[in-house]
């Protein structure tokens, strides 16, 4: 069974640009969550989607957005990039919509903003 | 703010010894806890989880203990091996669907 797949693995963007990251969950998983990981702030929750609906959102500005498609694949978008957006962006998928289920992570997309 | 904290940022152990990584969580309403292991260049890897109606759960070489009275979580690794060297995170689910709040992480270094 394939794991969570994130593309691309690495990305370099310029300040002011926008970026779209992609996440394919484990087959059969309908919940997809996104996290930002930085050395200073650690792992922080961005948002979670289930059946194409955003159910939870973290404390990030509106420049961070996401969506989920009918096949459960998810994308997140960051507009007007800032240097501080440089981070490892991680996607996790879970099998059920209920609470308290294992979340499996992908390898992440390393975004560098210059 | 919402956070799950760790007592020790770095833990060094000898190969073969047992390791204990501790974590303090802040929200008494949290009902689900997970330990993750993250190796360099990889995403967090699920190790073991525990629900709030339990105080102990065992896996292969790992045990998680939950003390709700003092809001404390620990991960015990038996017979620590070089392959266990990584950063370990505890995470709590504060009742939201698949919304995990992570601790700062503890680096485990295993020496031969």
Write the layout of secondary structure elements.
The complex is a heterodimer of chains A (114) and B (112).
Chain A: E1 5-7, E2 10-13, E3 19-24, E4 31-38, E5 42-50, E6 53-57, E7 64-68, E8 74-78, E9 87-94, E10 104-105, E11 109-113
Parallel strand pairs in A: 2-11
Antiparallel strand pairs in A: 1-3, 3-8, 4-5, 4-9, 5-6, 7-8, 9-10, 9-11
Chain B: E1 4-5, E2 10-14, E3 19-25, E4 32-38, E5 45-51, E6 56-58, E7 62-67, E8 72-77, E9 86-93, E10 100-102, E11 106-111
Parallel strand pairs in B: 2-11
Antiparallel strand pairs in B: 1-3, 3-8, 4-5, 4-9, 6-7, 7-8, 9-10, 9-11
Structure, explained:
The complex is a heterodimer of chains A (114) and B (112). Chain A is built from no helices and eleven strands. By secondary structure, chain A is mostly beta strands. Chain A is globular, with a radius of gyration of 13 Å. The model of chain A has no long low-confidence stretch (mean pLDDT 93). Chain B has 112 residues and is mainly beta. Helices cover 0% and strands 54% of the residues of chain B. Chain B has strands at residues 4-5, 10-14, 19-25, 32-38, 45-51, 56-58, 62-67, 72-77, 86-93, 100-102, 106-111. In chain B, strand 4 and strand 5 form a beta hairpin. The A-B interface holds A 4, 31, 33, 35, 42-45, 48, 50, 55-56, 58, 90, 92, 94, 97-108 and B 31-32, 34, 36, 41-46, 49, 51, 89, 91, 93, 95-105.
